[in-house]
Automatic annotation (TrEMBL):
It comes from Intestinirhabdus alba. Gene3D superfamilies: Ribonuclease E inhibitor RraA/RraA-like. This is Putative 4-hydroxy-4-methyl-2-oxoglutarate aldolase. It comes from the Bacteria. Keywords: Magnesium, Metal-binding. Substrate binds at G99, E100, I101, M102, R122, D123. NCBIfam families: PRK06201.1. Signal peptide: none annotated.
Length: 232
């Protein structure tokens, strides 16, 4: 077994129906029930225009050398409709990891659920209007190398968050989040309940029935001084 130059063909078993459930829950609601520490950072954001507002799928992880996409090609040939390909890139921004041709293959031929890159894409004019979820750090016209080394379906770190093969990835216009596979079922119930609660808060904010007493109580608890006068 060669560390840094290997492809695992299998991942932990997952329930495909779980993906459909998570396609109904905004990432912000999931994040709030996970103590707000599982959202991908480093500027990873939605760059395309999918008709479905929420992407969900199980991670095929790719550990790539900076600016190299050989292992990403390997992952594309393994992926199915339940999968989101997630690619680490050593924080590199100097080369795009994929462009219109590879994305067309992922979307039209493999029909995968989405792609998350800790790096740039290119052909942004074409990708920005595509009905397919692409999360990346931006655009760069410089193309990638295809030399390796790298790994598929081993643990990686993307956007400051650990991602293991089979973890559930959910993304929307706010960003993307990682839910460990072993926690996904229990977390779903929490996220569904919180999403319903949050919708009620939105409605209350609209109709004027929101309870704002907590603001003053919080300020008072922190010792904020209220002065019945203007500043001089």
């Amino acid at each position: 077994m060669t560390i840094g130059n290997r492809v695992y063909l299998k991942r932990p078993a997952f329930d495909a129906a779980l993906r459909k459930e998570y396609e109904q829950i905004p990432v912000a609601n999931i994040a709030d029930t996970m103590n707000r520490i599982a959202v991908l950072g480093n500027g990873i954001r939605l760059l395309s225009s999918p008709k479905k507002p929420i992407m969900a799928g199980f991670a095929i992880t790719v550990k790539a050398r900076a600016g190299d996409n050989l292992m990403l090609h390997a992952a594309l040939d393994m992926a199915t409709e339940n999968d989101v390909i997630v690619v680490s890139n050593e924080g590199d921004r100097s080369r795009a990891l994929m462009g219109e041709i590879m994305v067309a293959y992922a979307h039209c031929s493999r029909k995968i659920a989405g792609i998350v890159l800790d790096g740039p894409v290119r052909d942004i004019d074409a990708l920005s209007v595509l009905d397919f979820p692409i999360f990346a750090t931006g655009a760069n016209p410089a193309g990638p190398f295809k030399e390796g080394p790298g790994e598929v379906n081993t643990p990686i770190a993307v956007g400051g968050v650990a991602v293991c093969p089979g973890d559930l990835i959910v993304g929307d216009a706010d960003g993307a989040i990682v839910i460990p596979l072993g926690d996904a079922r229990a977390q779903l119930e929490k996220a569904q309940a919180y999403s319903a609660f949050d919708a009620g808060k939105v409605e209350a904010a609209k109709n004027g029935s929101a309870n704002r007493q907590w603001v003053k109580k919080s300020l008072e608890a922190k010792g904020v001084e209220f002065i019945d006068d203007s500043w001089r």
